[in-house]
Amino acid sequence: MSNKVIVSVDVEDWYHGPTVISPRDEQTTIGHFLSTRQGIERAAKYVDICLEMLAAHDMKATFFWVAEYAKRHEHLLRRVAEQGHEIGCHGLAHYSKLDCATKAPVFGVGEFAARTEMAKHMLEDMTGTEVIGYRAPNAYFSGKMFDALEELGFRYDSSVSVNSIYNKTDSALKGVGTAPYYPARGELKPGDAKRRMLEFPWPYFDVGVAKLPSAGGPFLRTFGSALTIAGLHQSLRRGHAVFYFHPIDICKEDIPLPFSPSRPMMWLFKGDMVRRRIERVLSEFRGVSANFREVVDADPA
Ligand SMILES: [Zn+2]
Prior knowledge:
It contains ten helices and ten strands. 33% of the residues lie in helices and 11% in strands. It binds zinc ion.
């Protein structure tokens, strides 16, 4: 299989972000949050627009769903699956699995595995299809998580991002580029042996002095499509390249907590402007795209 741009959509709402809900604070768990703040959901109505955008470009994507969100919007989950898109797992409740500051695990491996297994089964029960792909919430990821996912029967993950701006893993990521690879046991650096499960790291645009993130998401929202397109073209020369966006990215309504001091740019750009940016990327790679399952089922690495 020639190198593809792998298109993915992370289905979550604005309040799943790490500055809003926290796994260790009962006052901000999702059930409490929703019961005390009515009418705050924003993302669900934009899932259909994402489907329209993909259909207009003849693309089949992978939709990584937060399982508790899928449970509350089951009709949408089913519609996505019925239109031929792959369903992947984006955690049970979108809690970061590593502490943002220290990179220490928030959950032990056993608790992580139990929660993820529950999420996988929820998505499989609702769609009747095996879920083989995982993306870590907020992209906080570790080698131990990778091993646990492999034990649960997943066949790939796409959470690792090598760039010059942040590293959300507990690993130095030495030797990791942008092409799919098999990590060493317990780590995220490349290993010697093939495994059941692959990692699809995110693309970057290497400008010589820095590697700029170009997988989409907040960098597409903030800096526009040119950087993302340049990084995807460059990464395609190294192997398959991953692109992602969120339904919430194209939300036109106000977001209840638009400003976070730790992430001041987070929702500065959204709505129709971002929709046009996503569409520019989709147009650029029309005809050379795939979803993860298609690549994993072919010749992935
Ligand atoms: Zn997410």
